[in-house]
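Hi there,

I know you've been waiting on this one. I reran it after we fixed the sequence typo, so this is the corrected version. Both the input and the resulting structure follow.
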Amino acid sequence: MFKKVEAPHMTSSGLKVGDSVIAIAKMDRLYVKNYTALDKVKRSLVVALVFSFFGLLVHPLYLGLPLFVLILALAYWKAPEVELRALMVPSSDMAAVDTGLHKSNDPHVYQNVVEKFHALKSYEELIAHHDDDMDE
């Protein structure tokens, strides 16, 4: 049910994330979002409130509060430090979408992927610009 997904990496056909490959031409921007401690606390509070709500209704002091604190601690501990995000190019079917691709606690995991993406994207733009000059 919960399988560990390997970190995304660049292939000749695009960015491989899990079992799918996203073409470079479909992505407008690829970046790493860093979560601050405040972001992690906000996320953990929401998760803890949602999952301990029933315990808070049954008995707020003896069941709800310990359950809330336990879930809060676990959610904060498991919250990711960084996330690889992509801004997808708008098409006729959909508008531009900013989507999360992978989360990790190691910020260096995505550095190579982002550098390769920017190099390939600039190469594609250079080739497209060169082809436009040749047509004229």
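Quick highlight: The chain has two domains: 8-35+84-130, 36-79.

Best,
R. S.
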